[in-house]
Amino acid sequence: MHTEYNYSLFIECKDIILREYQLGDLDKLQELTWQPEIYEYLPGWNVEKEVRLNWMKNYEIPENNQFLRRVEEGLRVEDLRLRLGIVLKENGEFIGWCGSGIKDELPVPNREIMYGISKDHRSKGYTSQAVQGVIKYLFENTEIEELNAIALLVNGPSNRVIQKSDFKFVGEVEIDDDKYNHYRIHKTDCLKDCKYNNEGTDIL
To answer: Do residues 95 and 76 touch, judged by C-beta distance below 8 A?
Structure first.
C-alpha cells in the first residue's frame, strides 16, 4: 500500500502536540509498545521491530495520508484509520499515540478512539488532552457523528481518561474473553456541551 501524497496535521493542545506518525518515530514507538504497562492492556502491540517498520511504512503512514487527503478534499473518511503521535511541546519527545479506527467487535457505528502513553508520562493530563484533541478534530472536520471508547474494567486510568473526555457509559462488552466498559460520545452533544470544545486545542 503506497501513496504519493504527503499531508501534514498538527493538533496543538495545552502541553502536547498531536501529529501523524513519521518513520523517525520507529524506535520510540517500539520502545513504548514493549513497556509492560502498555502491552498488559494492549496485547498484540508488542511486535518485533521489523514488523513495526512494515506496519508504519506500508500501512499506517500511507493510510494517514489517505485520511488527511480526504479531509482536505471534503470527502468522507469512511473506515480509514488515523494514527497520531503524542509529542511534548517542551522538548519534542514522542511519548505516546492517539488515533481513531473501526472496532469490528462493537455495533455500528463502531469507530473508536484509541490511545497509549509511556509509563513515564502518566497522570499528567497528557492522554486526556490527546483524546479531546482527536475528538474535536474528527467532529469538526469529518462526517463522523459518533465515537466509541472501551477500557478494561480493571484499567482505572483509562476509564478515567474516557470519562474526563465526556464520553457516556453504555454498558459492559466482552471481547476475546475480556470485559470492557463501553462508552460513546455524539457530535451534537460534544459540540454543544463538551467543556474542552473551545479551549486548549488548535488545528494547525
So the answer is: no
Q: What is the longest distance spanned by two Cα atoms in the chain?
A: 44
| DSSP conformational letter for 146 | E
Question: Whole-angstrom Cα distance, residue 168 to residue 121?
Answer: 26
Dihedral through CA 79, CA 103, CA 11, CA 36, nearest 10? -140
Ordered by where they begin, the domains of the chain are: 10-203 (3.40.630.30)
With CA atoms as reference, report the closest residue to 164 among 192, 185, 142.
185
Query: pTM for this one?
Result: 0.89
Q: Is the dihedral of CA 41, 46, 51, 56 positive or negative?
A: positive
Question: How large is the angle between the packed helices 156-164 and 126-141, nearest 10 degrees?
Answer: 40
Question: What share of the chain has pLDDT > 70, as a percent?
Answer: 90
